[in-house]
Specification:
Layout lengths: L1 E5 L5 E4 L3 E5 L17 E9 L4 E7 L3 E8 L2 E5 L4 E4 L3 E6 L4 E7 L6 E8 L9 E6 L9 E6 L6 E2 L5 E7 L4 E5 L5 E9 L2 E3 L2 E3 L4 E5 L3 E6 L3 E9 L6
Parallel strand pairs: 13-14
Antiparallel strand pairs: 1-20, 2-3, 3-4, 4-11, 5-10, 6-9, 6-11, 7-8, 7-10, 9-12, 13-15, 15-22, 16-21, 17-20, 17-22, 18-19, 18-21
């Protein structure tokens, strides 16, 4: 088993006034050659956007882009004609494929929006761009793991990669096991809040822990806690 621990305080940081963003991996003006990606996981940004502000129209291609609002609402528009509000407990994915232009704005004029922006390298390049969004009842992850992104689960949003995103919200002392879906995959654990022990490694709020060369994770909550598990292939195809 291999592990790599990224403490919350070691993340890259950019504050533009309207946007306060923490970067787990190299992004924008933050570059760390030791933190470019974890397998197919390329970007994990922890973003706070001020009222009425956001990301104006900009292009993407050949990337799986997942948005998970933690509080507040996002207003998404893109060149496929989509015009959607993404709310807390929603998960949205955009397969940029051969090319797409989109914007994401804070839909609220009275409060900030906090969300995770996650990029995963695709399995197939230049597919037709696609969009999907689903709501997930928060009680369905109380002391259990809930799959929200998957290539093979109709209850989750579909991703163009052998990758699975899983949310869990645990009471203190709750223990569970996560079984990896595919040999050769690893899991990046991102702690939304609380303290846990993952495969004997202690982690805290906003810490990231990458684990590979194992087939399962042992999870023990030391306090009430919430986590996001991102399972991705560790080997990525080069262009």
């Amino acid at each position: 088993m291999k592990t790599i621990l990224h403490k919350a305080a070691t993340r890259g940081h950019a504050n533009f006034g309207w946007l306060n963003s923490y970067h787990t991996f190299s992004f924008g003006n933050y570059y760390n050659p030791d933190r470019v990606h974890f397998g197919a996981l390329r970007v994990l940004n922890d973003d706070t956007v001020k009222q009425g502000m956001g990301f104006s129209k900009h292009p993407h291609d050949n990337m799986e882009i997942v948005s998970i609002p933690l509080s507040g609402d996002l207003h998404h528009k893109d060149s496929t004609g989509r015009d959607k509000i993404i709310r807390q407990n929603d998960v949205q994915i955009m397969s940029a494929g051969s090319g797409i232009v989109h914007s994401e704005m804070n839909a609220n004029h009275d409060k900030e929006v906090k969300f995770l922006q996650i990029w995963v390298l695709p399995k197939e390049r230049n597919i037709e761009p696609r969009y999907e969004q689903k709501s997930f009842a928060p009680e369905n992850r109380n002391n259990q793991l809930l799959t929200v992104v998957a290539p093979d689960d109709a209850n989750a949003v579909w991703i163009n990669q052998d990758a699975w995103f899983t949310l869990g919200k645990f009471s203190k002392d709750h223990a569970t096991t996560y079984q990896l879906h595919k040999e050769g995959n690893g899991v990046y654990v991102f702690v939304l809040n609380g303290n846990l022990t993952i495969n004997e490694q202690a982690v805290e709020t906003r810490d990231g822990l990458g684990i590979s060369e194992t087939d399962h994770l042992s999870i023990q909550a030391a306090t009430d806690a919430e986590i996001l598990l991102i399972e991705v292939p560790m080997k990525i195809q080069e262009d």
